[in-house]
């Protein structure tokens, strides 16, 4: 089927609604005489009107374990850095995941890679491994507040290392092994690791990549390191050429299990849980610290009510360890649900390998990005014809704005009875501002609602709320998973400038959003990549939705720059599908599509064929750096090659910008 934005695609069966965690919460709130609400809209309204009551009730609902009671849910409802949540409490994030091992002896983690078939780790076995490794960390001098980092693959061992570090109060950071050494150093170097878990290489698309030599140089750059733990992925045998001692993963895991004698380090409410990193396209990535209690409360809410995860569910989302989605996948286990991990190319050894994982793991939730859906469509993959997906009931599409065609593909090729969700948030909040509800219908390309206790609004250029039109996404009141701070930002200057400076009194996230009358939301791309043409703001995602639905276009990127004479130049870069040619007919077809689906102002000044669209390591198009190149900025000031997935791709745009500027000067 072909669908248009906003078209109704699915309504939840009554049984699905009644059995949802959201309905259970509303029933419990009524039983406890806290509040009586009977639908999502009224529950959301109460949560933003009474955030202290909402978050306080969740503390009770989830039986959060703390050494001490909190003094207050929150110390201020002013939207600013430094708001304190559950001050006085002492909790541990990992403890709340692993407490499920006490009552569940089923599978906690399914893991598969290009080289290894599916393996399962039970809840008790996961807890045992974490206790053993955490005890080894303590024996090697790791204390609360110490930095422990990993350059590890998307496998069970990385989850174990992460939870072990968190269990003892250390601060965890991830980087993916496919990152270049400079990109890793740009991130983990800020964290100043005391201990580093480091693999010997990785496998991708059927090839092995030995990183031991490059990682040796990385180790030498970390003066703070006391301990290095090697985890062999490819088994090359290439040693780390370093002066510091290197221990093997196996040696740390050979210790005894302390069992019930093991104590989780419960930490204060302002104790950092991890450092996660922004994409870093124009400089060093921001190193963002979140708290144990903040992420615990936010993820309990999000995974339970917006993902509807329960014990017995298995959730899969294709990601790497260098993206905050890995942290979110681990957070899914707070609900007692299992997770499935895949390490490697999503289309190797076959284009449908992830659907094989979904079948063999019995996935109830399948998650991927819109670009993965495009891959499936290009390769004519029809999962419903080849796999038993009878347990699958939920789809999570994330990472970039979804198009109606993305939604249609799942209903056409997977199954008709699906709760298809799209959500949007960011690394900065380790959650989502706009999210899904199992009690609401699904409309094409629409994010179902604003997330609970996220007081999100859309503002026009005059700072007034707007509905059924595109505006700036803002949040009016604080929430627990706001960053504690950024590293190397002692006076909170970068933190303030990033979210609070432009519109005082609210969090400005930097996304364009449209909220309709029923509360549905659409994300239209980054507002810092705004196409501001003759005073009309255009979201880039609007153009991508229209253009990338054409069979001749496999990818695209658009920017807009002022030309200095009151005019504008808006080129559309297109990566053509195999066999397609950018001729006069295709140019006219692109213009016609944009006119009919968007407006005449969305039609570019020029369509430029390119071999590749440049992306960050976390999958974001480099719209802002390319725009700055066209404005005359020096390439080394606006392009961080170490933060790029395809660093060589930017060379074309550097040359293109130089030619553009030269022609402008000559005219």
Give a description of the structure:
This protein is of the alpha/beta class and 667 residues long. The protein has 2 domains: 90-515, 3-Layer(aba) Sandwich (Rossmann fold), CATH 3.40.50; 523-666, ANL, C-terminal domain (GMP Synthetase, Chain A, domain 3), CATH 3.30.300. Helices cover 31% and strands 23% of the residues. It is built from 22 helices and 37 strands. The strands form 11 sheets. An 8-stranded mixed beta sheet has the order 13-12-9-7-8-15-16-28. Strands 6-5-18-17-19-20-21 form a 7-stranded mixed beta sheet, with helices on both faces. Helix 16 links the parallel strand 20 (394-397) and strand 21. Helix 3 (40-49) crosses helix 4, helix 6 (123-139) packs across helix 7 (156-167) and helix 8 (181-191) packs parallel to helix 9. The chain is globular. The model has no long low-confidence stretch (mean pLDDT 92).
List keywords for this structure.
seven-stranded mixed β-sheet; alpha/beta; Rossmann fold; 667 residues; globular; eight-stranded mixed β-sheet; Acetoacetate--CoA ligase; EC 6.2.1.16; GMP Synthetase, Chain A, domain 3; 22 helices; nucleotide-binding; 2 domains
